[in-house]
Each structure stands twice: as C-alpha cells, then as structure tokens.
Design a protein that fits this description.
By secondary structure, the chain is mainly β. It contains no helices and 4 strands. It has strands at 27-29, 41-44, 47-55, 58-62.
Length: 78
C-alpha cells in the first residue's frame, strides 16, 4: 500500500489478498499488519481507507475515507 506509514515509521506494505479487491470489499489482507493501528488511515492509489479493526494481517476498513472514491485494487498493490 503506497504511502502507508506504520506505527514503526515504515512505509512499504503490500496488498496480499491472493486476488484483487473490489471497490466494495471491506476486508483487506496485507503483508504485515503489525505496523498498522486501528483508527488510522491508509492509502492505496488515490483511495484512502480508515482502519476500523485488525485481525492478524486482515484489516477491516471503511472505504473511500476523507472524500476519496472507493476503487478496485490489484493483489500486490503497493
């Protein structure tokens, strides 16, 4: 996920869903969710998402946060 900054200051974390995600998916699997926190925002492409909860490497997100449009994203998107 490009421009995603983790709680450790890192910025590289890829979508790891095994397939693509549609604009309506609210579960997003990433390579390493340990660097992220619930209540923060991530950006994938031009879309921002708010992380509402984390379970292992699966994020539950609110899509299209901060006025951005929810969009489909490919597996391994950065």
């Amino acid at each position: 996920m490009a421009s995603t900054q983790g709680n450790d200051g890192s910025t590289a974390n890829l979508l790891n869903d095994g397939d693509n995600i549609s604009s309506g998916d609210t579960a997003v699997v990433v390579d390493d969710a340990s660097i992220l926190d619930a209540g923060t925002y991530i950006r994938m492409g031009t879309e921002q998402m708010e992380i509402s909860s984390i379970s292992t490497n699966t994020l539950t997100v609110v899509r299209g946060a901060k006025g951005t449009a929810a969009a489909a994203h490919n597996d391994d998107a950065a």
